[in-house]
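User: Hey, quick favor. My workstation is busy. Could you predict this chain's structure for me?
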Amino acid sequence: MTPRYLIVLMAMLAGTLLLVPSPAKAACAPLSACSCTVTATGVSFGTYTVVNASPTDSTGNIQVHCTLLVALAGSFTVDLSTGSSGTYTQRALHNGASVLDYNLYTDAARTQILGNGSGGSFRITRNFTALLSVDQTMTVYGRIRSSQNVPAGSYSDTIIVTVTY
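Assistant: No problem, here it is.
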């Protein structure tokens, strides 16, 4: 498998994970005759309440769509960057000097941190069997841990999504 990359930026704004809506296009090898796009929907956490004893959870999606494949089977991986924290252990939303910890996960139980397979994180790998198109959607599970004493405001972080196929 020759690596090809599709990159989409994800940003956290005001407690909402926004995935840049414009699709990223991939250049395919001349003989593979394909075109791929990656799109994503945002993770909306809503309002974060400092005194809430429960974490704030939400979900978003990453969709990979490839057309006119000249292969009967293949696979791709989805990797997420660490964002501004520089670590998968705990990602960080920033509002000036204030920090609100959060993370992104591969599973609904929020036990497997979504990353690139390093630093204790997991990547998403999908196999496919197709001749003309592949259309797969992956859910991103987000969580802001509870009881963080932060001032009100808009917190943000940028996550890069890389799809290799």
